[in-house]
Amino acid sequence: MTEKDRGEIKPIHIVSCAFCTAVMAILCTAAGFIMAAIPGLPLGFCPAVPIMVPFALWFGGWGVIAAYVGCAIGGVAKGIPVAITLPWVINDIFMAGVPLVAFRYLKANPELKTKRDWLIFVVFGMTVNSFFACTWGTIIPVYFGVWPAKAVPVIWAQYIVMSLILIGVITPPILKALTKRAKKTGAYTEGIFA
Amino acid sequence: MSCPSCGDRSKPPPGTGIRLRSFLFYFSPDSPYQKINPLTKLVMMVTISTVAFIIENIYANLILLLIICAGLAFAHISFGSFKKVIIAISGLLLIAALTHAFFSQIPGDIVYFNFPWGSYITERTIHYVTIFYLKFLAASLANLIFLCTTRETDLIVALRFLHLPYILCFMFALTLRLMSILLDDWWALIQAQRARGMDFKGSIIERLKKLQQIIFPLLTSIFKKIEDTNYAILARGFTLSDVQRTSIRQLRWRFFDYFLLTLSIVLLVVVIIAKYYYGYLSFR
Predict the structure, then answer these.
(1) Strand pairing partners for B120?
(2) Are B64 and B51 within 8 A, CB to CB?
(3) Is residue A57 part of a domain?
(4) pTM for this prediction
(5) pLDDT digits (tens, 9 = 90+) for B185-227
(6) What is the ipTM of this complex?
(7) B42 touching A, CB under 8 A?
């Protein structure tokens, strides 16, 4: 990629967004069916969560869009009414968007090479984004009557613990191993959308 | 012979035994839903699932659920195809319904059980939990009918009719097509890893670490596919400029489409007025 190509939205960004959306939709739908098949699995087990952070860090705003649209498709495929799904999956914008903004603004490297990169990842890529995403993802279903209000602390705790475990176990190896490969594709963005 | 809803000559004529692929399953081109406009189906899915969600009267929920089940039966899809999906959806709804049972405080005449955290189960709790289960099951089945009887190409025709930007429609169409491709890749990776002796047993942390063995190759293959697809669309002259495009498929409107569209919108309006202005169809 030359200097002239940087900062320009290209068709490959659209293609990468479509691929990421498809992956999110599959993983989000699979989560529901896995939970139904394995009794006792904590709420909040969604394999899409640890993948949306790398997608956002690699593909910028396109990864965030993919997180939202993909999980919305997954929600509809799981049978949740559209009127509930669309506001509910805004939590995925927090989950993917917070680390994206932090990494871009603080100029951290998604390959997690230095302690500073790791610190920014742990704070914004694991903790802050999970807090906002899980809070939204718990409160909105209560508003629509999916969960009772008294169950909020239990559900919130399960969501955030699972989110931290998923991101902490799966995301760092993906970032360390595959960021270099992602940078070679023309879809890697250094800004938000280009 | 062309498709009655969009004039698509690529669809096989009815009676040939060739099945069409929807989002989830294969279905017969003889299905009555093929005669319905995809935009009408989309609007019906949204309105009926919203109506099912709004109604909180056990008899109304039951009647709506029976109507939706009858609609599912008309789709001409074998029960074996969607049995697992319905079981999975029912399982998820059961978890949500039990959460309501254990954490709600709905007063009633008879208290069956008191929990240490202050919640209790009364006869009205059981009534509410039943309503909750029925209404979400009805909404889920309404979504399922749409997903089982609509092809992604039909959905894109409907979105183009709404004059959405071509880039959005293209991205959405590509996403929908990729879902089935990537699902096959996902399944192949699981089988390949199982053939190498991997199992998914162990604690949650161990299972997550094993999940990486599927996610890594999937992501690596995605990078290659992104580049290949990019070259393919560039070779076909795809650009991001807003060029007026024509389509071989056109949306056809018949009287039945207008009738169903009007009926579903009127139903939604009536249910909203009945519940929020007159208090009918509410949980009491």
Answers:
(1) B114
(2) yes
(3) yes
(4) 0.85
(5) 888 888 898 898 887 777 778 887 888 888 899 999 999 999 9
(6) 0.87
(7) no
Distance in angstroms (rounded) separating the CA atoms of residues A174 and B71: 45
Q: What are the CA-CA distances from residue B85 to residues A51, B79, B142 (Å)?
A: 24, 10, 13
Residue A6 lies in a domain: no
d(CA B57, CA A64): 39
* B116 close contact with A: CB closer than 8 A: no
Domain extent at residue A100:
11-184
Residue type, B198: M
- Asked whether residue A90 is domain-assigned, the answer is yes
Give B84's contacts in chain A (Cβ within 8 Å): 33
CB distance B275 to B282 below 8 Å = yes
Report the CATH number at residue A64.
1.10.1760
B228: nearest Cα among A106, A15, A84, A171: A15
Q: How far apart are CA B134 and CA A139, in angstroms?
A: 22
> What residues of B are in contact with residue A77 (Cβ under 8 Å)?
23-24, 143, 147
Q: Which two tokens stand for residue A43?
A: 């709420």
Contact B226 A12 (CB under 8 A): yes
The whole-angstrom separation of Cα A21 and Cα B182 is: 11
A123 occurs within a structural domain: yes
How many domains is chain A partitioned into structurally? 1
Q: What is the CA radius of gyration of chain A?
A: 17
Are A84 and A99 in contact by the 8 Å Cβ rule? The answer is no
Work out the angle at residue A55's Cα, subtended by the Cα atoms of residues B222 and B241, and round it to the nearest 5 degrees: 80
**Cα–Cα distance list, B261 to B40, B41, B124, B131, B272 (Å):** 6, 8, 36, 27, 17
The string of pLDDT tens digits covering residues A40-92 is: 555 667 888 999 999 999 999 999 999 999 999 888 877 788 888 999 999 99
